[in-house]
Backbone:
């Protein structure tokens, strides 16, 4: 079932983009998959390790959120298998457009939340702090597959000894570079440091051909990419206190270093000239061969390749190291969690659903399916007993960088969903105005954030 990158691309599927999140096996990617056939030609579902338990159970309706009702035969087959093995459970499927996980908090407060949520990593700290997620230990302790999950990832959602989320797909933020443009410029390797990145970008940058040496977010969500540079400079934008409250550190020396580096990219003329380009525009332009390098997640590979870039020209590495010597980046992805406010029978049913859709049997069938359809995103399955390379082949470079990301990856800065917009405005200001003083702009952003958002955040999150 293995497919090389080039063969897979010729059969490419439309890949979902991540807002710092990975693709969703139970939903988005499955919509393009096809059922598997056995040697006899009959479609078969994978065996599960869960014993069927149809003993006297009260009927339970499990409410779940989906992004679409349009599911392919393979997905329907898997759902039918789940329901056959759990005849006491019925599914109430509610369509939620966009990223349903981001609306979960408000839905819990309104009393109309689903019984389980498929959440991005970004939102999990907020949900855990708010007390709206059910501890999973009573389930995981008795699950024979629990020991196969990779500790680096499950521990991200562990607080005070309790696990609150079960990740099923991980896509670290890496650094993408166009190998063809690098070769034309006489550059043999991706940059290892910030300074090397600037010098390489100068060699690649070619306004006459509309080729930008370096790109980063400037028009929206600028705090998303900016945080990586702050970490690489040795600091952070906030500090999480032991009691769950936050301190703002927008004026940390590392923040100022990162801001000055952004200004250097701009002043050296290697950053995209059109600062109004949004996230989708950057991925598209990378795919069109117009960007030399940029922060780049593994699950954007298929999207960029669909725009025309030869998949063999998509290079992935760890981000260049900043002044601290660190190449720190973010580990993003998606995980399942249970609504703590629903009743016990629904919590139990939610676990049955989660354990089915994160089982080795289900994930093996899922990725085997995608391999036949051209899925080629180098993502991480957060289990030690299965890897995407079991189903299709990637360049060895991809395998190495995914493994390396485990030791340098971390969750996004604490309170990002509440404080990010204030950072965003400061970053935009220092990029648009070449005379802007980073210390002044980030100090003003911190003061405004403290007056408008910090107190409410700390009151809501204090333990």
Residues:
């Amino acid at each position: 079932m293995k497919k090389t990158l080039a063969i897979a691309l010729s059969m490419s599927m439309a890949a979902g983009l991540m807002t710092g999140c990975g693709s969703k096996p139970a939903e988005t990617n499955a919509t393009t998959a096809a059922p598997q056939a056995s040697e006899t030609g009959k479609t078969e579902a994978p065996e599960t390790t869960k014993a069927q338990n149809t003993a006297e159970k009260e009927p339970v309706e499990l409410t779940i959120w989906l992004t679409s009702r349009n599911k392919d035969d393979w997905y329907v087959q898997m759902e039918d298998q789940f329901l056959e093995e759990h005849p006491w459970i019925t599914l109430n499927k509610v369509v939620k457009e966009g990223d349903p996980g981001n609306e979960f908090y408000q839905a819990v407060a309104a009393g109309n939340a689903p019984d389980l949520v498929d959440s991005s990593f970004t939102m999990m700290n907020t949900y855990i702090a708010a007390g709206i997620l059910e501890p999973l230990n009573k389930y995981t302790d008795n699950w024979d597959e629990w020991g196969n999950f990779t500790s680096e990832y499950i521990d991200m959602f562990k607080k005070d000894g309790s696990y609150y989320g079960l990740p099923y797909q991980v896509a670290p933020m890496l650094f993408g570079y166009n190998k063809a443009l690098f070769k034309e410029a006489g550059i043999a390797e991706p940059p290892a440091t910030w300074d090397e990145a600037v010098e390489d970008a100068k060699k690649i940058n070619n306004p006459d051909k509309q080729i930008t040496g370096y790109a980063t977010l400037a028009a929206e969500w600028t705090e998303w990419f900016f945080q990586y540079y702050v970490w690489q400079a040795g600091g952070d934008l906030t500090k999480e206190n032991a009691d769950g409250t936050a301190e703002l550190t927008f004026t940390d020396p590392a923040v100022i270093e990162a801001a000055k580096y952004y200004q250097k990219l701009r002043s050296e003329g290697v950053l995209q000239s059109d600062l109004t380009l949004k996230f989708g525009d950057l991925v598209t332009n990378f795919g069109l061969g117009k960007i030399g390098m940029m922060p780049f997640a593994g699950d954007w590979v298929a999207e960029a390749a669909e725009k025309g870039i030869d998949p063999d020209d998509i290079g992935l590495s760890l981000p260049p190291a900043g002044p601290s010597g660190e190449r720190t980046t973010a580990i993003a992805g998606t995980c399942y969690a249970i609504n703590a406010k629903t009743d016990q029978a629904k919590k139990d049913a939610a676990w049955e659903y989660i354990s089915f859709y994160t089982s080795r049997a289900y994930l093996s069938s899922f990725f085997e399916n995608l391999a036949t359809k051209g899925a080629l995103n180098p993502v991480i399955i957060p289990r030690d007993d299965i890897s995407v390379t079991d189903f299709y082949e990637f360049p060895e470079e991809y395998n190495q960088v995914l493994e390396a990301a485990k030791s340098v990856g971390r969750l996004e800065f604490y309170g990002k969903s509440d404080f990010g917009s204030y950072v965003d405005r400061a970053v935009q200001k220092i990029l648009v105005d070449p005379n802007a003083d980073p210390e002044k702009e980030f100090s003003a952003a911190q003061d405004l954030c403290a007056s408008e958002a910090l107190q409410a955040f700390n009151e809501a999150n204090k333990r």
Residues 174-330+413-461 form a domain with the D-Maltodextrin-Binding Protein; domain 2 fold (CATH 3.40.190.10).
